[in-house]
Amino acid sequence: MRFYIIAMQFLTIIPLPFSVHREKEDLGRSTALFPLAGFTIGALLVGLNLLISPWLARPLCDALLITALSAVTGGLHLDGMADVCDGLAARGGRDRFLAVMKDSNVGAVGAAGLVLDLLLKWQALVAVPNEIKWQALLLFPAMARFGQVLTLTGARHARADGLGAAFVQGAGAVALSIAFVITAAAAFFLLGAKAFIAMMALCLFTAGGRMFFQRRLGGLTGDTVGCISELNEILVLIIFSTTLILQ
User: Fold this and answer.
1) 119-174 pLDDT, tens per residue?
2) Please, what is the angle between helix 222-240 and helix 76-89, to 10°?
């Protein structure tokens, strides 16, 4: 329960009526329950969808769902997406990339990346068939947060300080195994074996993204983890929108 609360406090801005004491190593250990926090976020989206979908056109409803997702997470990973886009656009080597990501200002490329991120996520959700929409709303935040655990486990950290380093140091094989079991069991229960198409794609994409950033930066930062997570949300929704899931 304590690690779930820590995960919720980090991944969302949902006000909890209580708090828990946490040590630095607890951040990494809490990653085991990141998917459970993702399911909580997904459950909120399902509830909101039930409230507004009878009254609104599907595109507008889904736009509000993506807005709610951004709001409940406090734009945590959107910030990482913007910073990585600015870092990729900056000329120079590793140190320049890291310096640009650490800058609190958002450049033109970062702003464009944010717009494209939200636009793609919205359109991918619109394309998800109504028959599996509530399952998709539950699963895609959880799968993306499992992707965060996969990204962190066994990775190097590009900076000695920062939250990214704390999570990389604390995440391990046990946390990854627990996160996988939670995500895979729920995915199978909700969509059957076909859900593993999305799981496999997410794992491959996450491995590729982690490899890219570790080669480019010598390790990961919180921003790179957030960027991969945002792209994983889009990827999972795109797969859910294909006929592969419905066949």
Assistant:
1) 999 999 999 999 999 999 999 999 999 999 999 887 666 655 555 555 555 567 88
2) 110
Other beta carbons less than 10 A from residue 77's beta carbon: 26
The domain segmentation of the chain, as residue ranges, is 2-246
191 within 8 A of 133, measured Cβ to Cβ: no
Q: Give residue 102's pLDDT.
A: 74
Whether 142 contacts 183, CB under 8 Å: yes
Q: Which tokens sit at 25?
A: 């190593």
Burial degree of 25 (CB within 10 A; 0-12, 13-18, 19+): exposed
Q: What is the maximum span of the chain, computed from C-alpha positions, in angstroms?
A: 51
d(CA 56, CA 49): 10
Q: How far is 183 from 139, CA to CA, in rounded Å? A: 8
Between CA 203 and CA 147 the distance in angstroms is 7
Contact present, 162 and 18 (Cβ < 8 Å): no
Where on the phi/psi map is residue 155: left (φ > 0), alpha (ψ -120 to 50), or beta?
Answer: beta
